[in-house]
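On clarity, I found the account of how folds are encoded harder to follow than it need be. For illustration, here is how one protein appears when written out as sequence plus structure tokens:

:::
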Amino acid sequence: MFSIGDRQVIIAVLLAATMVLAGCSGGGGPTPTDGGTDSSTDADAEAGVSADSYQWAEGESYTYESDASQGSSSRYTWVVTDVNDGAVTAELTSSFGSQSQTVNITGPQGDVFNGTDQNPPQSFTFVLLQIPQALIQGETLEPGNSWTVSSDEFQVSGAEPQEQSQEQSQEVNVSVTGTSQIQGTQCYDVEVSTANETFSACVREDWPFALEMTFTLQSQTTTYTLVDFDRP
């Protein structure tokens, strides 16, 4: 687990890391598929499940397509292949056109990203998609609501701890702006801003990842959108 408190604000770091990954993977992913098995049409009003405490189920899967303003696109898939004795194994695949890379990560339930000494590049996309989920923990998801999270309280799994620095904590501002339907599931649109970064996402309180996320880095806008899923 790492924090972005008085150590440093790491949102920009994750965005940059993800952009590097997208550049290596390329674009032009397959055509989006039909929605997954979750046919619910309303999101629970009260947020309360953090990405760190999420309990994975065997067979659970999420597939995202990433589209960048410069025209590239890629696809990322997360599949939980095994849950046994408190350990979770997930298969992560990134693909661009005919090129595809697959790795497995194994870690404890609730902190699967920190099960290995160093996470593979394929994990950065899913670490990024945890950020909006962590920011809504304990808050009421209702259009018009807003709140501020101190960066020294914000924690997400997926990277090694940063060394203590002298930087003061910063504020992360979150606003609920409306609702959207993504793959047949209603989620809440949120806008997130810090002193240096702004991004938007669509979140649902009982999910490990945002259903959609859009950010701009170095004049390039990138969107990750859920295109298929299976929630046992």
